[in-house]
Amino acid sequence: MSEDKYEKVMDLAKRRGYLWSSFEIYGGIAGFVDYAPLGTILKNNIIDTWRKHYIINEEFYEIDSPTITPYEVLKASGHVDNFTDPMVECKECLESFRADHIIEENININTEGKTLEELNELIKKHNIRCPKCGGEFGDVKKYNLMFLTSIGPGGKRTGYMRPETAQGIFIQFKRLASFFRNKLPFGVAQIGKSYRNEISPRQGVIRLREFTQAEAEFFVHPKIKNHKRFKDVENDIIPLLPADRQMDETLSSEEKVVNMSLKDAVEKGIIRHETIAYFVAITKRFLMDIGIDINRLRFRQHLPDEMAHYAIDCWDAEIYTDRFGWIECVGIADRTDYDLKAHMNHSGVDLSVFVEYDKPKEIETYDIELNYKVVGKVFKKDMKLVENTLNNMDNSEIEKLVKELNENGKYILTIEDKEFEILNDYLKINKTKKKISGEKVLPHVIEPSYGIDRITYCLLEHAYNEEEDRTYLKLKPEVAPVKVGVFPLVNKQGMPEIAMEIKDNLRKNGIIAEYDDSGAIGRRYMRMDEVGTPFCITVDGQTLEDGTITIRHRDTREQIRIKIDEVVDYIKRNI
RNA sequence: GCGCCAGUGGUGUAGCCUGGUAUCACUCUGGCCUUCCAAGCCAGUAACUCGGGUUCAAAUCCCGACUGGCGCACCA
After folding, report:
1. What is the signed CA dihedral for A531, A537, A538, A541, rounded to 10 degrees?
2. Which of A16, A53, A133, A484 is the most exposed place for a label (fewest CB within 10 A)?
3. More confident residue, A345 or A308
4. Are A250 and A310 in contact (CB under 8 A)?
């Protein structure tokens, strides 16, 4: 038994129509897979379950945006810079290195923000050589993990295949906020393909160049990160692998995991706030709903140096697989306002939300009334600049201005390098009381992001079962692609006709059923077991006498007998 | 991207060293048989990863590409 489970699962997946490697007749390309007929249904069933959780239960709305994304968007989001690694290759031994890492190791310089030319110069200037063989380096080149394309004829606009679905949500934030009538919190989801041009994708379906993500973006008030339904989940016990325990060398790898209620985890500050904890619970419930083995699931906190540049806390749902060990299938991150801020700065569009207070506040404020006739003539072109600056002053600055005007008769307003002299007759300042009913805030976003392909593979592996005389997929009836197999026990006495009719009737009721009359009955059961079909209906001699059939359960192989006209109801109740 | 190893019907394989019509089993399809868990009988479909070279002749020898496995590197 040297063959590992991955191989067995992938073999079954290939033979029985779950997963096929793409472009096979042309030799194939690493990092791409096709979902075969049954795999496609399974994946869709997983996605449907996901939608039940997020769209129905959590009241998220889903959008669907383009996969091709213009340069500007990904420049703003930081992906153009962060997805592009500068690589350098040794001319002697052909080994590749990260150019920035090599430089930092050798001359202790921060290379952040340096251009390729600057990196090149640094290597030449300090005569940095290959740490392996001492050979000379070639030129620094960028390896971009995003697929580059051009939009329109002539390639005037650069685009990339999106590296995540989330950006599509962020850049529509203004519309989304108004769709939700500016009430925080609200959630938006997107399910779709994302693309990463991996250098060397070698773990089959685990690391793909084109993959399906289901991402949920939950926008919250930056100061309110508790969750109104946290009470529903606070007693859920979750296997957690916190950052400090991961780094504790005195613990064995089993001891690093602690089973803890989410209430404790939040109270002890292990999970940063309720909203992350809440989505940890939803993630666990979703994964268990589709049939992931709870004993092969844990939540691991990112270490401080592993966190993405935008995140302040991140927990991955990791699922155990035979060959690859624990693999990351879901990431739940607090992305703060990183993305909205970035898009706001780059696009110039205000993406903040006006949040009303419970009760309007009354505050003391100053009203600046400009004497435009005078001021306009004095400042001319700079008029607008001065006006804006004055209007944006806070109370303490205005108080200082008033004080200086009273004492010296003038105030020097400094804007960048320029100085403007403000005199008493330029403006009138009135102290007023104002009613303020709310404030503008830039929301933070909590993001649970699911890798659907990895989850699908893990589910197949967890469902894979071997017994002495059979191999079967113990898929939950809810996600199994084919729900029912219908067979005549033998091909005579009208049994095939009755079986066919039962199959048709199930199909009419929206249930995927397969008819099969070839070979011995046992063989047909085995075929259905191997693809994970939960129920098999057999028409036999007794059917002809009293109109009953048997339903065989996949896992126990036990059979019960019911009337033909109860079949549809029975199946519907059990899937 | 580098190094080592491998690639034969749907699956697992024999053949490769020593060049000459590709083996066997299972699966699958059709038929017969069969009254409940891969039984049996008959018939059938189906493969040398791709490209180039050497040769009268290449699955076999040589080179390259692709794919897969392992190690290194990479994986915000």
Report:
1. 180
2. A133
3. A345
4. no
Dihedrals φ, ψ of A344, to 5°? -65, -45
d(CA A180, CA A352): 14
Rounded Cα distance between A23 and A1, Å, is 31
Q: Which of A176, A166, A158, A170 is nearest to A71 (CA)?
A: A158
CB A415 within 8 A of CB A389: yes
Backbone CA torsion sign across A163, A164, A168, A173: negative
pLDDT tens-digit profile of A173-231? 999 999 999 899 999 999 999 999 887 787 888 989 999 999 999 999 999 999 999 99
Looking at the DSSP bridge assignments, the partners of residue A165 are none
ipTM (interface predicted TM): 0.91
**What radius of gyration do chain A's Cα atoms show?**
31
pLDDT (average), residues A378-407? 81
Instruction: Give the CA distances from residue A38 to residues A32, A41, A58, A111, A211, in Å, rounded to whole numbers and listed in that order.
Output: 18, 5, 29, 49, 18
Mean pLDDT of the residues in chain A: 88
Q: Please say whether the beta carbons of A464 and A526 come within 8 A.
A: no
Q: Closest nucleotide (CA of A523 to C1')?
A: B38
What is the CA A410 to C1' B39 distance in angstroms?
108
Closest nt by CA–C1' to A83: B76
Distance A29 CA to B4 C1' (A): 22
- The torsion defined by the Cα of A79, A240, A455 and A168, in degrees rounded to 10, comes to -30
pLDDT at A514: 96
Q: Which nucleotide is nearest to A310 (CA to C1')?
A: B76
Q: Which nucleotide is nearest to A537 (CA to C1')?
A: B36
Say how far A216 CA is from B69 C1', in Å.
36
Measured to protein CB atoms, the chain B nucleotides within 7 Å are 1-3, 7, 10-12, 27-40, 49-50, 65-70, 72-76
> Which residues, at least 6 apart from A389, have a Cβ–Cβ distance to it below 8 Å?
A413, A415
User: CA-to-CA distance for A262 and A281, rounded, in angstroms?
Assistant: 8
| Mean pLDDT for the stretch of residues A298-308 | 85
Terminal CA-CA length for chain A: 35
- At A346-378, the pLDDT tens digits run 988 889 998 888 888 877 778 777 777 888 788
Q: Which residue is nearest to nucleotide B74 (CA to C1')?
A: A199
Quick one: tokens of A10?
A: 């992938």
Query: Residue A232 corresponds to which tokens in the numbers above?
Result: 């529903």
Q: Å from A416 (CA) to B14 (C1')?
A: 84
CA(A488)–C1'(B41) in Å? 22
* Residue A448 contacts residue A535 (beta carbons within 8 Å): no
pTM, to two decimals: 0.85
Contact A568, A509 (CB under 8 A): yes
Confidence of residue A58 (pLDDT cuts 50, 70, 90): very high
| Rounded (5°) CA angle A163-A165-A171 | 105
In this structure, chain A runs to a length of: 575
pLDDT of residue A343: 92
Query: Rounded to whole angstroms, how far apart are CA atoms A493 and A544?
Result: 8
A213/B47 CA-to-C1' distance in Å: 37
